Amino acid sequence: MAGRGGLLMLENFIGGKFLPCSSYLDSYDPSTGEVYCHVPNSGKEEVEAAVEAARAAFPGWSSRSPQERSQVLQRLADLLEQSLEELAQAESKDQGERGKTITLARTMDIPRAVHNFRFFASSILHHTSECTQMDHLGCLHYTVRAPVGIAALISPWNLPLYLLTWKIAPAIAAGNTVIAKPSELTSVTAWMMCRLLEKAGVPPGVVNIVFGTGPRVGEALVSHPEVPLISFTGSQPTAERITQLSAPYCKKLSLELGGKNPAIIFEDANLAECIPTTVRSSFANQGEICLCTSRIFVQRSIYSEFLKRFVEAARMWKVGIPSDPSADMGALISKAHLEKVRSYIKKARMEGAQILCGEGVDKLNLPPRNQAGYFMLPTVITDVKDESCCMKEEIFGPVTCVVPFDSEEEVIQRANNVKYGLAATVWSGNVGRVHRVAKKLQSGLVWTNCWLIRELNLPFGGMKSSGVGREGAKDSYEFFTEVKTITVKH
Ligand SMILES: NC(=O)c1ccc[n+]([C@@H]2O[C@H](COP(=O)([O-])OP(=O)(O)OC[C@H]3O[C@@H](n4cnc5c(N)ncnc54)[C@H](O)[C@@H]3O)[C@@H](O)[C@H]2O)c1
Ligand SMILES: N/C(=C\C=C\C=O)C(=O)O
């Protein structure tokens, strides 16, 4: 709806109704410094109202059959698909000059949000329970699963509707009611989705969305005693805080966090495929995808050739305004984030590393009105030590380090030598080596000779500081349900 000064003014969605909030956050367009949208600055009061609505809706929704719930999810997927262009425009505009290109929103974010509902609408129909027998004792044992209750779903700004629906769909398919909190930086598409819920047949109170900041509404939500389950995607420091706040209640937690993802490129790799894919895996969505490559290990015999061709390809990766369909990359999410990313380049320089292209080396070519935006060129760093912060810490920007290696054992040890363990890529024509290396990497996901091909049936998630738990058909079902073992003596 239109609010102050004709700007978009979002409202919370609680109990099937849009409700105004007593205070609002200004959301800025960072290229102009102007407010472009008002987002509810919700807190405890709004969380209380959402918990009440979710509690009231739970008995009815949880007692529907999986088939009935599945039909509702299918209808929601259809409605989202019918609004694909409108949602893609909004997703790109919401990150606006901040970054998401219209092409990525059209081809990845919104189609995947649609697919999330279709996928879980289908997978909920195919779960089976376990059964075992103890004939010598005359016993039969079996399991039953039931939804947990009210789920808190907290998501980040980088893939707004994609990641939020990746949580809402499995949670409600399993019969839970939910309170979702999108990032305060990118709330618009979640709000637009609320307008479709009633038409899809989602009963009031099954999906509630409260908007606002982490410290205010996020903390009120995760520390609420009647919310037994939290699915969180975001940064490691926030995950720590959520873990502390939820610990007194022994809540069920799923944490999908950051990464420092290696690409390992052996001398027998098909460079014609590897180079464009590794440019994409390093710089897609401005490098603001938790799965992006940020450390590239290249076998020494092909190191010089790889570096030359990789830098050439990185320079071709077009930085442009997000509404330009030919742009490969837009701008970063905020001024603060751009400064943080640039600070890594500065530190790398001070440590004696070389910046081969991008920040401080090449010139951005942008229209005059976008020159104040938070744009940065794809940046390649080399001559950097494994102990450098650029090789250890998650930068979450269009920056990647390229270093040589000699042997398989050595590169596995170096790739594993960070606190994260989310995603890795391995490039080699030797099938035996691909399997061997993939097995030894401390990483929840390993893509070999490709990147970001998603099979939603299988577990998604990270090891070490990259997270706790997995998401996927079976994993999300197990997370969003409680299991009970029943023994029958006959
Ligand atoms: N593993 C994955 O699947 C995955 C996917 C996307 C992003 N990420 C990670 O997310 C990070 C970037 O996203 P971000 O900057 O939005 O992360 P963030 O942790 O700052 O925020 C994520 C969400 O948590 C909320 N939040 C912040 N403080 C909170 C608190 N104290 N209590 C409750 N909620 C709180 C935010 O408002 C937002 O909705 C990166 O580290 C990235 O790697 C991981
Ligand atoms: N959760 C998924 C992707 C996360 C990307 C992070 O930025 C997914 O593809 O299911």
Automatic annotation (TrEMBL):
Keywords: Cytoplasm, NAD, Oxidoreductase. The keyword Hydrolase does not apply. The active site is at E256. One of its GO terms (biological process) is retinoic acid metabolic process. It is found in: Cytoplasm. CDD domains: ALDH_F8_HMSADH (cd07093). It catalyses: 2-aminomuconate 6-semialdehyde + NAD(+) + H2O = (2Z,4E)-2-aminomuconate + NADH + 2 H(+). Its EC number is 1.2.1.32. It holds the Pfam family Aldedh. Residues 24-486 form the Aldehyde dehydrogenase domain. One of its GO terms (molecular function) is retinal dehydrogenase (NAD+) activity. It is an enzyme of class 1 (oxidoreductase). Belongs to the aldehyde dehydrogenase family. Catalyzes the NAD-dependent oxidation of 2-aminomuconic semialdehyde of the kynurenine metabolic pathway in L-tryptophan degradation. This is 2-aminomuconic semialdehyde dehydrogenase. It comes from Bison bison bison.
